[in-house]
Amino acid sequence: MLDGRVAICTGAGRGVGAEVAKMMAANGAKVLVNDPGVSGEGEGADNTPAQQIVDQIKAAGGEAVANFGSVTSYEDCLGMVEQARDELGGAHILFNPAGILRDRMFHKMSPDDWQAVIDVHLTGHFNVCRAAINLFRDQEYGRIVMVSSTSGLLGNIGQANYGAAKMGIVALARILAMENGSKNITANVIAPSADTRMTRSVPTPKDPQAAAIREERLRRSRADAIAPLCTFLASEQAGYVNGQVFHQRAAELSLYSLPRPIRMVHHNGGWTPELIAEVAMPSLSTSFMDVGDSRKMHPGMPMD
Asked: Strand pairing partners for 255?
């Protein structure tokens, strides 16, 4: 499906990124495997994870090179594109699951906790996409697969920084899709639910029954289940899929809506605070969205 294409996969030394890199390679792509090897909170460095995935791809008969730059650096992202062109012959696909977590309740979140997560997730998406977009436009071909989360789409307690970044990625993808669709460039979003180092770092519920349910949900949500969707979205066949948001866990694949007006009220001559209290808000409130656990949106267990 990806014969003749070159993919840049960030954060691909572990988890979903590693599985997608391997499947893209198995489908014919040459892959630049990027991963600086940082901890789950973005600290340290280790070349081993990226190199191990490169070695696995090569052992399976594919072609890949390792890159150890950080998506937080625009210069490093320019270097990824340059390396892909010099060593693999081009760049046609971007997949950017690179991420960290610094979960804190908002009233305990430091500016550093906020900025570190924004830098990796939201600014990281800007850096990678900006580094490649003019090449994609010049060659009139590109496939961009961005990574969001239900923490942004639906919200999640303790993840204000992560959720804000992940919702910003949806807006970024939508606008890139608008601006570049005429150049045969697509930008889509996946929100994966998978058993990875990041998801394992979220504290286990104290209630034994809830902890057991979480463990079973993770067991069923294998990271490699996300790879087929990403591989398809990276293909030439997916040219008609643009600006969309998908959620996937195990064998369950969902298309998400984008924010749209769901109810509207009008008052001739405009509104006063009193009229809003008496008329507008009671009417609009019949369509209010619940503030609650994202599990209400995705109940039950994923299907294997």
From this structure: 246
